[in-house]
TrEMBL record:
Organism of this sequence: Engystomops pustulosus
Pfam families xrefs: TSP1_2, TSP_1
PROSITE patterns per record: TSP1
Family annotation (PANTHER family): PROPERDIN
Protein name: Sema5A/B-like TSP-1 type 1 domain-containing protein
Location in the cell: Secreted
Main location group: secreted
SMART domains, A to Z: TSP1
InterPro entries listed in its UniProt record: Compl_asym_regulator (IPR052065), Sema5A/B-like_TSP-1 (IPR057563), TSP1_rpt (IPR000884), TSP1_rpt_sf (IPR036383)
Record's keyword terms, sorted: Disulfide bond, Repeat, Secreted, Signal
SUPFAM superfamilies hit by this protein: TSP-1 type 1 repeat
Taxonomic classification: Eukaryota, Metazoa, Chordata, Craniata, Vertebrata
Domain annotation Sema5A/B-like TSP-1 type: ranges: 138-202
Ribosomal protein keyword on record: no
């Protein structure tokens, strides 16, 4: 009996029928299988709701020779940072309208505002100010009537000094009823007692009055040094002369005290009789005195009459 033949793969492949059989065995179909899921990717947002994904592939194994493909999704998504809300953005709202100017003229202020949304830490200011109506106001003046003439000083010779006053207010204001500053105007005149000449009117003198509303440093007035004596009003028979000073060293301001005393000083002069004439105080004089209305001017009794010499 002959020995059995051993299987020879090479020889077998040379046989057409056997080759086809071996090929079919090596090409058996294979169904696909999923790989494990990858890790979840980073969330799409750092705060607030986002999403993240993970993936897998149908390669464990891959389908071959007509095998079934993997069933299911190769990509999964899910929400993330659901409990990590983003900070609310803080920002300024738009500026509002400008408010009404605080003054109609002379420079006022108005403002506008904005709000810090979603907080109170916005950089910058919530209110803005701006100068408005800076054009000068029309000047407003008001004068009081003059007071009657009032005697303020009399010399021994009888000449008198009279003054009258009026008050002037002047300011640049939108409302004329809000005048705050005033000046006192003083007019002075000098009247010889004998009526030999008309009263001589001096120039006006302004004294600043007390301030109304505006706070400022209070300055009290001070007298300037006395000026030179004027020429005597008469060459003989007792005239008078005067000298002046002003309350401007400094001027009283903002409610400061005015200067105390008179701005004029008078002095008798040239009391000697005129050549060839009797002294005026003996001419047609009463027995013992002359009354000039405000001061009693006493003179000696005439020679040969009894009486008392009274002091001035």
């Amino acid at each position: 009996m002959p020995a059995p033949m051993r299987h020879n793969p090479i020889a077998c492949t040379k046989i057409p029928g056997q080759y086809r059989e071996n090929r079919r065995k090596s090409e058996i179909f294979r169904n696909g299988g999923w790989t494990p899921w990858s890790s979840w990717a980073q969330c799409s947002t750092s705060c607030g709701i986002g999403f993240q994904v993970r993936q897998r592939t149908c390669s464990n194994p891959a389908p071959r020779f007509g095998g079934r493909v993997c069933v299911g999704q190769s990509r999964e998504e899910r929400f993330c940072n659901e409990n990590s809300p983003c900070p609310v953005p803080i920002f300024w709202s738009s500026w509002g309208s400008w408010s009404k100017c605080s003054a109609d003229c002379g420079g006022g202020v108005h403002s506008r505002q904005r709000n810090c949304e979603n907080g109170n830490s916005c950089p910058g200011c919530a209110q803005e100010f701006r100068i408005c109506n800076s054009e000068a106001c029309p000047e407003v003046r008001r004068n009081t009537p003059w007071t009657p003439w009032m005697t303020v000083n009399i010399t021994q010779g009888g000449a008198r000094q009279e003054q009258r006053f009026r008050y002037t207010c002047r300011a640049q204001l939108s409302d004329p009823h809000e005048l705050q500053f005033g000046r006192k105007k003083t007019e002075t005149r000098f009247c010889p007692n004998d009526g030999s000449a008309a009263c001589e009117t001096d120039s006006l003198v302004d004294d600043l009055m007390r301030s109304g509303k505006t706070p400022a440093r209070v300055i009290s007035g001070g007298w300037t040094p006395w000026g030179m004596w004027s020429t005597c009003s008469r060459d003989c028979e007792l005239g008078f002369r005067s000298r002046r000073r002003t309350c401007s060293n400094p001027e009283p301001r903002n409610g400061g005290q005015p200067c105390m005393g008179s701005a004029m000083d008078f002095q008798d002069c040239n009391p000697q009789p005129c050549p060839g004439e009797e002294p005026p105080h003996l001419r047609d004089a009463p027995e013992n005195s002359h009354d000039f209305g405000c001061f009693l001017y006493n003179v000696p009794c005439r020679k040969g009459l009894k009486g008392v010499v009274l002091s001035i």
